[in-house]
Each structure stands twice: as structure tokens, then as C-alpha cells.
Write a structure and sequence with these properties.
Length: 179
Amino acid sequence: MNRWTGHHRNKQLVRRRAVHMIEVAVSMVIVSVILLTAMNMVGAAGQSTRSMTDRGTGHLLAEQLMAEIMAQAYEEPDAPPGSFGNEDFEDVTKDRSYYDDVDDYDRWSSKPPVYKDGTTVPGYDGWRRKVEVDWVHPTDADLTVDSNTGIKRILVTVTRAGVKVAELQALRTDSGGDE
């Protein structure tokens, strides 16, 4: 074997090794991109699952409070017609045990959620429930008015960590039924 043939073989081996090293580097980049994409997809799926769970839980919390409110009278049984809001003897704190009509709940809020007697609902530390009650126009429930129209709109909103996860709306009429 002459000197040039051996040198030529060494050059070919070096080139082959260089090509293999480039192939390995490109393969590593491709695998890294695939793994990063897969990890992002798993993270997004987890976030989506939590969001759906939060919406379901929030809806249940809103339904529970709305059922409590809708079971109350349209207005204070002993007050003059057209009165609105808490009466003097009704506690405006978290304890709703004295609430006896729909508008007593207006502007009520609790973080974390509490039962009617004011005790905390366990396991909901980052959650908040709030209620708004308004008189609404008889032909447009989105239009609030300043006087008794015989229709009150109740809006229950539930948030978790400051993000709205559920909102429930109902109408209560002075005839005693709900719509």
C-alpha cells in the first residue's frame, strides 16, 4: 500500500465520522423538538382538564346558592311593598340564616364559600361566590330599573383564584314563581 492510498482511506474515515456526527446532532435536535412538543401538549391537556373541572365545580356551587335564593319570598313579608335589600335585623355578613327574601342576597359575597349558617364549605379556599339582585324591565331582563317591576334578576357568580368559572342567572317574579 502506498502512502497516498493510506492517506486517502484516513480522509474517507474522517469524512464518514463527520457525517455520522452531523447525523447524530440533527437527530438529537429532532428528538428534542418532538419531546418539547409532547411535553407542551401534556401540560395543555392538564390545564384543560383543570379548567373543565373548575367550571363544573363552579356551576355546582352556583346552583346550590341559587336554589337557596329561589326558595325565598319575592320581597320582605313584613315590609312595605317595593322595599329592597337587608332589613335592620338581617346580618349582612356571611351568615345568611336570617335572609327571608330574594333581595336580602343583593351584594352578598363570600370567600371561601359558606353554608347558610356561615360555616365554611371545606376544600374551597380559593373560591368566591357573589350575588347581585336587581329589578329588571318586564320585556328586557338585561335592562335594570330603579323601581319594583314585579321581576327581579338574580345573578350568582363563582370565581376561583380571581377567574370567573361559572355564572348563573334566574328571574323571580312577585307572583312567587320563577322563570
